[in-house]
Structure formats: structure tokens, C-alpha cells
Design goal:
single chain, alpha+beta, binds 2-acetamido-2-deoxy-beta-D-glucopyranose, five-stranded antiparallel sheet, elongated
Length: about 425
Amino acid sequence: MIFTFISLYFNTCCIHGFRYLVNSMLILLERLLWLILLVLSIYYCIISCLSSVERFQTKSTHIGLERNSYYFKTSMPAVTICPMQRLNKTFFDQYCLGKVKGKAKDELFDFLENLANSTYTNFKDIPQYDSIDDSLQKLDIEPKDYMKLIYNLTYDGTYEPIEKLRIRCVDGQVILKVRQILTEFGLCYLCSSYLGEEYSSRYLIFGMYPESNKHLTSQQVVDVKRATFFDKDVGFTLMGFDVTAIDSYIHSAFEVMKVDNNFGYSPEGAAYEPEVEEIVADAELETETSIKQRKCRYYHESNLTHYPFYTKNTCLQECRINLAYRVCKCIPHFYPNRIANPKPVCSYKILKSCFANHAGYFLKFYENDIDEKPAICYCEQNCIDAVIKLKSALAMRGAKQLLGSMGKFVFHEHLAKESIQAASHLFVYGSFG
Ligand SMILES: *[C@@H]1O[C@H](CO)[C@@H](O)[C@H](O)[C@H]1NC(C)=O
Ligand SMILES: *[C@@H]1O[C@H](CO)[C@@H](O)[C@H](O)[C@H]1NC(C)=O
Ligand SMILES: *[C@@H]1O[C@H](CO)[C@@H](O)[C@H](O)[C@H]1NC(C)=O
Ligand SMILES: *[C@@H]1O[C@H](CO)[C@@H](O)[C@H](O)[C@H]1NC(C)=O
């Protein structure tokens, strides 16, 4: 009964080939052959269907075109400045308060100053005095406290009451927000950035948002300066660094700095002429596509462990944390470590031994010099970003104070495959007198 039904169905079925399975004219071997052919064809049919679905989910392309380019607004790049003189002597004196005296105190200051100024390229410069271990023990400082102590002993110049001395970022009447941040080069200052308040030293070290700056409340403060084709003079000035040298980084306003990408130490002011290409995304891109489809992440779509937000460079920093942890079994003090299972923080001795030997490889994501391939590290792009190309950077000898800004403003655009990019030449003049 059932067999007759199946044979009737196969005989009249629309799918080519089924008929031969039940054709009594054919011998068993031939039917078997047909069966194999049928199974294979159905198998490949399913495979090719699934690959279309997969392609839809991961390799979709979106092409957009915006016509009114004259009204594009391009954001000025961000500037990160790391002062090369870190600690405040007054704070240090208060902190020691007779517990550490004389030569040991001077040595401790030198040690902490260098620790605060340390990054992958200069771990070997941390001095090793005989008195250090003793002093650290007296003050009850363990490696996990290094960064908190450095934060406590650093004077945040953005809160300075006297305007002339304050670390500030201005363009004429407009004030741009400046904040102290935690970077792979210790505590630095950032101006002109779209990143949220999570990216501040206080949040990354203590989990608290920065205090509001009571000296600025009466003025108009903007995050980032934006400009269109019709704006002639665009620029801003970051100043108030009362030190002998600074280290500067110019990067996208949607990104954090890269410690291996600085523009050199400069004892005086510097002027930069960057070219900005902004990558913008449709408002619907975020809601209508998954991360897998668009292959990029927004700021708040973080899957990182140490950072509560996502940018490509923070993702790379996290790769470096994991690499350092794998090789040296601990992580440097300048990384946020407020996570469920904090990783051990390296003592200065390990920084001097293990890190000084591997630092160059860590920066390039190699485990050691024998490795041919970089350590595995996959970081998605930022959905909204800007590409900065520096056309020229001039050290301004003798120009201790350059106020205002000048420069011409050229504008051109190109259309990239997956996004619209607007490009413009902007001049950022930083004066750090
Ligand atoms: C801080 O580190 C930089 C880079 O290694 C170095 O050029 C500078 O002299 C250091 N600053 C101090 C005060 O030692
Ligand atoms: C140290 O901090 C005090 C504020 O408590 C400030 O007035 C002084 O200028 C700071 N010194 C340096 C060298 O930054
Ligand atoms: C830093 O300062 C805070 C508040 O003033 C204090 O509670 C903390 O113990 C200090 N941390 C270190 C390592 O000195
Ligand atoms: C974050 O997501 C990417 C893929 O989207 C993955 O490769 C990476 O391992 C994830 N990172 C963490 C820390 O889970």
C-alpha cells in the first residue's frame, strides 16, 4: 500500500530523477546510481542556498550617495598632548609627609616621575635605587596602586582657576572641551573628541565621571569644531602646558591616540596641517544591520573587557594587554583594570626586565623576534570615523604663543564603495607655549 503510494508519487513527481528510483525497468544498481545522484544534487542545492544566506548576513554592500556636498560638515581632528613632566612636587611633598625623607624621598620622586612617564619604548629608563622597595613598603604601595598614586600626584591643569595658566583649547570665542585621559603613555590631555566621558582618566581608573569644571560653566563649550565649505578659517589652539617638552598625537575625533604614532617631542609650539577624510554612515545603518553584516562597530557596541566603549584603537590596545599578559604574566599599570577578574599589574622590576625586552614586539603585536606571524588580533572598523593625513608639521621655534588660527580651507570629496567620504584640508595650530 505504502510502496504503491510512494512509487505513484515518485513517478508523477515534478522533481526530475525521482521517477527512475521506482522505474521497474531498471536494475537495482541503476536505481542506486540514481539515488546517489539525487542525494548529491539535493545536498549541493542546500549548500548553495545556505551560502546565499551567509552572504546576505556577512558580505552585504551598501552604496550611498549624498549630493549636497557643499553642506557637508567635516570635523576637526582630535589632539592628544602628553606633558613630559608629570608629577606635582607640592602634592608629592604632602603625600610623603615625613614618612620618607632625604635622599630616599628624592629617589622616590625620580622613580615615580619616570614610572608616570613610562610606555613601551622607555620602560628601561625607570631608575632602580636601593631605597625604592623600602619606600614603597613604608607607603604601602603595591603595583595595583601605581596608577591611582600617579593620578593622585598629578595636577589636572584643566581645572586651574586662573585662565591664563589653565590647559585650554580655544578658537576665538568658542571653547573646546579638554579632558585628562588615561593612555598607554600615562595621563594625557585630549581636545576635540566625540568620545564620551567614559574616556577620561577618572572614569577608567576609578569608575567615576569627571567632575564638572566650574570655571567653564558660564561659557559656550563645544566637543568638536565642525566646518563646511563656506568656512574660511578653521583651527583651534591647545595651550597651557607649562613644561619643558610635550608629546603630541593628532588623530580622528572618533578615535583614541596610538602610542606608536606620535609626531615627535617638541620643546616649543607646533603647527600641523592635517587632511581629514570623514567616513559617515546612514542613520539606518545602525538599526537595520547587525555587526556581522556591516563589519563595523559603533562607540557603544563594545565587546571589549577592559574598556566600556569601542573604537578600533582601544580594541588594538586590548589585544596588546592580552599579548603582554600572555608573555609577561601581568599588565602595565596604565591600562584600565576595573573588571570582574582584574589581571595582576606588573611591578616596576618586571616592567624593566620582561617588558623592556619585548616592548618592540608588543607594539607590533609579535610575541617575540622569532615569530613570523603577528599574534591573532581581529578588530572591527569604527562605523563612523575620520582618516587623518598629516601634510606638514612644523615646529614653531620661538613662537611661544600663537593665538587664533589661520590658513586656507580647501574642500574636495570622493565617493568610496561603502560610504561617503568627505575630505577637506584643515589647519590645526597647536600652541603649547
Ligand atoms: C619621558 O619620556 C620621554 C620618552 O621616552 C622622554 O623623551 C622624556 O625625556 C621623559 N621625561 C622625563 C622628565 O624624563
Ligand atoms: C601643583 O598644584 C598646585 C595646585 O594645588 C598648582 O597651583 C601648581 O601650579 C602645581 N604645580 C605645577 C608645577 O603644576
Ligand atoms: C588617592 O586619593 C584618594 C582620595 O584622596 C585616596 O582615597 C586613595 O587612597 C589615594 N590612593 C593612593 C594610592 O594614594
Ligand atoms: C569581539 O568581537 C569580535 C568579532 O566581532 C571577536 O573577534 C572578538 O574576539 C570579540 N572580542 C572579545 C573580547 O570578545
